[in-house]
Amino acid sequence: MASAWLSPSQAMLAIDASYFVTAVLFIVGLKRMSSPVTARSGILWAGAGMAVATAVTFFFPGMTNYGLIGAAILIGGVLAAVSGKRVAMTNMPQMIALYNGMGGGAAAAIAAVELYRGETHSYGALALAVGGGIIGAVSFGGSVIAWGKLEGVITRSLRFAGQQIINLLILVAALVVGGLIIAGQGGAGLVTALFVLSLLLGVTMTLPIGGADMPVVISLYNALTGLAVGFEGFVLGNAAMIIAGTVVGSAGTLLTQLMARAMNRSLGNVLFSGFGDTGGEATGTVSGSLKPIEASDVGVMLAFAQKVIVVPGYGMAVAQAQHKIWELCQLLIDRGVTVRFAIHPVAGRMPGHMNVLLAEAGVPYDLIADLEEINAEFDTADVALIIGANDVVNPSARTDKSSPIYGMPILNADRAKNVIVIKRGKGAGFSGIENALFYLDNTRMLYGDAQKAGAELIQAVKAIG
Amino acid sequence: MTGMVALYIFMLAAFTGYEVISRVPVILHTPLMSGSNFVHGIVLVGAMVALGAAHTPLEKAIGFVGVLLAAGNAVGGYVVTERMLEMFKSSGRGGPGKGSR
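ok -> structure tokens follow
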């Protein structure tokens, strides 16, 4: 395409220079995305980098199949754009998992094209192609399962005795096949076996992991896809892919560790223990009774409080109640009540997810506080309003060593003067653990759907005038 | 690109990734994961090169799937990250009901 006015070597130089610009734009973009003030512009910088890189790649010397390339970009791009625009904020984690899996699949596809062609002969390049292919395929298979689990398509966590051993055997088999390919024993059969084994490994590794742990797993696969992209970048001699892939690989690894730490889980624990959706038997003896309260009484309590701390949980997001709750809080703020939102790291489906959901409802981020920031403030709060949150405010995590969530940092909602829990029914939380908070003397239960309860509270506060 | 130079690039890029996000607050974990997910959508250029050099029907088929998946990664990653970050604002004045869903 470009050969009419640039020699191939000139075209290559221009393309490499453009890739360099892309790498810079990506790094600046990521840096800006790591602060709430500049985050918005960060994605625009990174997006510009992607546009530049994609555009110049069309001028790659010796390119053919333009029709196929254009068609694939069009189909993939349009499908992703439509699904990305439509997806509800609550379903964001699984959507990210799906897009991430696609990236892993693409990296594996690049490896497959290179290996099937069989023109790569140096050990280093073969090793990188094989390594990137395995990692990419694992990320693809695993991400699709992660998506299926969070989307509710896959409802059971498949677990059986000796599962870890079988996973290990699949991994070893994939490595052996990969080793044979690197040693030059190539052939289409082995290459096919490599990808089938790797895909299978991603699936079987992810199946036993419970829904609660899935965010950490998605983040891990995100880092792995980055690494796979970096490896394939080496194979193709493409600097933009090497830099962007490696940056994401290391940033993603750090992010995975931060998330695991925020959830008080180690990565090894997440991958190999199989806790996360059954949680275990309802342990711990809970004494006392559940004491219900009427919305009108809560309205009075809130309206005449000095300080209210709202603790939102995933139940609030599922009920789409964040708009109603924010409306209620604005009424309170207008009355002079200090309102803060306390966000536990795992309040949503993944760390930071609840912040996104609140931001969607229009809650300014400076009213939202992290666990460390807010925990001391519960002592001085008149009301802690718990909406659809459960395990993250369970005081058993502090005291009950037999509890599966023992040691997890929690929000000290029990230390507020009054605790109001808005809850749909009397069931236990995501982990299946009974919540001691609900039975405390200063706790009252407001039963009902969070959206409906929010509307009732707004009425109650307005009625006071 | 020689092996050693490639290794240096790898090492420096790894440190860069670590440093760039090492002080990120929890509230940005989800958007940042989504943003880095978008960045590895750069795999699109590799997939384009691979499909552009494909000859046999098998290579073309795999290359086509690769470009399709990579385009999904890049475009989807951008759209959802942009949607999330668009909503972050401080308390100048933000009324409720912004955004219909």
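The radius of gyration of chain A is 26 Å.
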